[in-house]
């Protein structure tokens, strides 16, 4: 009987924590026509599955997908990204998560601008799962490598 009460209390507490914020967790997916040549591993469906699984396992609240299918990462004039940016600027986003840094963009300068200035300005945490990048830990070795990875992503395009 005690275990049941504790279990119910834990579930109730989790619901309270998730309802404590109405901010969304932005799950951003992007696939360019060139990236589609890489096959299923880079597909939008695969990215969505990776992002949602991560979001659930790490208990991020209120996930919402923003998707750009068939758009180059070399510029940020993408409808899904612009919709997400509007939500960020309105103060509605707590965290932005992508599969990796290249999904956010392949323009090194602009990607760095969003990660280092725009997102922090609006209090948004950014995570690139496969690159082990998380702005909550600025001293991480993986975070130190982000600029180099962004340069390679830019060079790749």
Describe the structure.
With 157 residues, this protein is α/β, with parallel strands linked by helices. The protein has a single domain, classed as Resolvase, N-terminal catalytic domain (Rossmann fold, 3-Layer(aba) Sandwich). It is 48% helix and 17% strand. It has a five-stranded mixed sheet, sandwiched between helices. The longest helix is centred in the N-terminal third of the chain and has 18 residues, at 2-19. It is globular.
Large-scale geometry: globular
User: How many domains in all?
Assistant: 1
> How many distinct helices?
7
The biggest sheet amounts to: 5 strands, mixed
Instruction: Specify the CATH class.
Output: Alpha Beta
Q: Give me the count of strands.
A: 5
Oligomerization state of this entry?
single chain
In N-to-C order, the SSE pattern is HEHEHEHHEEHH
Strand order in the sheet with the most strands: 2-1-3-4-5
Strand content: 15-25%
On the 0 to 100 scale, the average pLDDT is 79
CATH architecture: 3-Layer(aba) Sandwich
- Estimated structural class: alpha/beta
The proportion of residues forming helix, as a percent range, comes to 40-55%
Radius of gyration: 17 Å
Tell me the name of the CATH homologous superfamily: Resolvase, N-terminal catalytic domain
Could you give the distance between the termini?
Answer: 60 Å
